[in-house]
Protein backbone atom coordinates (compact mmCIF):
# COMPACT_ATOMS: atom_id res chain seq x y z
CA UNK A 1 0.00 0.00 0.00
CA UNK A 2 3.04 2.28 -0.02
CA UNK A 3 2.28 3.44 -3.54
CA UNK A 4 -1.21 4.56 -2.55
CA UNK A 5 -0.04 6.45 0.51
CA UNK A 6 2.69 8.21 -1.50
CA UNK A 7 0.34 9.11 -4.33
CA UNK A 8 -2.37 10.19 -1.92
CA UNK A 9 -0.21 12.31 0.36
CA UNK A 10 1.68 14.08 -2.40
CA UNK A 11 -1.04 14.77 -4.95
CA UNK A 12 -4.51 15.02 -3.49
CA UNK A 13 -4.58 15.14 0.28
CA UNK A 14 -6.79 18.00 1.36
CA UNK A 15 -8.07 18.73 -2.12
CA UNK A 16 -11.60 17.48 -1.34
CA UNK A 17 -12.59 16.21 2.09
CA UNK A 18 -15.44 13.97 0.91
CA UNK A 19 -13.31 12.25 -1.71
CA UNK A 20 -10.36 12.03 0.69
CA UNK A 21 -12.57 10.28 3.27
CA UNK A 22 -13.70 7.69 0.73
CA UNK A 23 -10.12 7.13 -0.46
CA UNK A 24 -8.95 6.65 3.12
CA UNK A 25 -11.72 4.14 3.81
CA UNK A 26 -10.91 2.18 0.67
CA UNK A 27 -7.26 2.05 1.71
CA UNK A 28 -8.25 0.77 5.17
CA UNK A 29 -10.61 -1.81 3.68
CA UNK A 30 -7.97 -3.08 1.25
CA UNK A 31 -5.29 -3.24 3.91
CA UNK A 32 -7.62 -5.27 6.15
CA UNK A 33 -8.69 -7.48 3.24
CA UNK A 34 -12.30 -6.23 3.39
CA UNK A 35 -12.64 -6.40 -0.36
CA UNK A 36 -16.45 -6.30 -0.41
CA UNK A 37 -16.35 -3.00 1.44
CA UNK A 38 -13.54 -1.78 -0.81
CA UNK A 39 -15.62 -2.56 -3.91
CA UNK A 40 -18.53 -0.55 -2.49
CA UNK A 41 -16.16 2.29 -1.64
CA UNK A 42 -14.75 2.27 -5.17
CA UNK A 43 -18.27 2.61 -6.56
CA UNK A 44 -18.97 5.49 -4.16
CA UNK A 45 -15.71 7.19 -5.13
CA UNK A 46 -16.45 6.84 -8.83
CA UNK A 47 -19.97 8.25 -8.43
CA UNK A 48 -18.96 11.20 -6.24
CA UNK A 49 -15.96 11.98 -8.42
CA UNK A 50 -18.20 12.11 -11.48
CA UNK A 51 -20.69 14.36 -9.70
CA UNK A 52 -18.01 16.77 -8.53
CA UNK A 53 -16.42 16.93 -11.97
CA UNK A 54 -19.77 17.53 -13.66
CA UNK A 55 -20.55 20.29 -11.17
CA UNK A 56 -17.14 21.94 -11.58
CA UNK A 57 -16.38 21.47 -7.89
CA UNK A 58 -13.00 19.85 -8.34
CA UNK A 59 -9.94 21.66 -9.68
CA UNK A 60 -7.75 18.65 -10.44
CA UNK A 61 -9.50 15.29 -10.72
CA UNK A 62 -6.62 13.42 -12.35
CA UNK A 63 -5.01 12.15 -9.13
CA UNK A 64 -8.37 10.79 -7.99
CA UNK A 65 -8.85 9.06 -11.33
CA UNK A 66 -5.39 7.50 -11.02
CA UNK A 67 -6.21 6.19 -7.55
CA UNK A 68 -9.57 4.93 -8.73
CA UNK A 69 -7.93 2.93 -11.52
CA UNK A 70 -5.37 1.46 -9.13
CA UNK A 71 -8.10 0.50 -6.68
CA UNK A 72 -10.08 -1.14 -9.49
CA UNK A 73 -7.01 -3.13 -10.55
CA UNK A 74 -6.47 -4.20 -6.96
CA UNK A 75 -9.94 -5.76 -6.67
CA UNK A 76 -10.28 -6.97 -10.28
CA UNK A 77 -9.48 -10.57 -9.40
CA UNK A 78 -11.65 -10.57 -6.31
CA UNK A 79 -14.28 -13.28 -6.25
CA UNK A 80 -16.88 -13.66 -3.55
CA UNK A 81 -16.77 -16.97 -1.69
CA UNK A 82 -20.29 -16.87 -0.31
How would you summarize the topology of this molecule?
Blueprint: H1 2-12, H2 17-31, H3 35-54, H4 62-75
Helix pairs in contact: 1-4, 2-3, 2-4, 3-4
Molecular structure report:
- The protein has 82 residues and is mainly α.
- It has helices at 2-12, 17-31, 35-54, 62-75.
- The N and C termini lie far apart (26 Å).
- 73% of the residues lie in helices and 0% in strands.
Count of DSSP H/I helices: 4
Q: How far apart are the termini? A: 26 Å
Mean pLDDT: 84
Radius of gyration: 12 Å
Helical/strand content category: mainly alpha
The total of beta strands comes to 0
What's the story with the biggest beta sheet? none
Element string (H = helix, E = strand): HHHH
- Strand fraction: under 5%
Global morphology: elongated
How helical, in percent, are the residues?
over 70%
Low-confidence region ranges: none
Features:
mainly alpha, 4 helices, single chain, elongated, 82 residues
Summary of the model, kept short:
Helices cover 73% and strands 0% of the residues. With 82 residues, the chain is mainly alpha-helical.
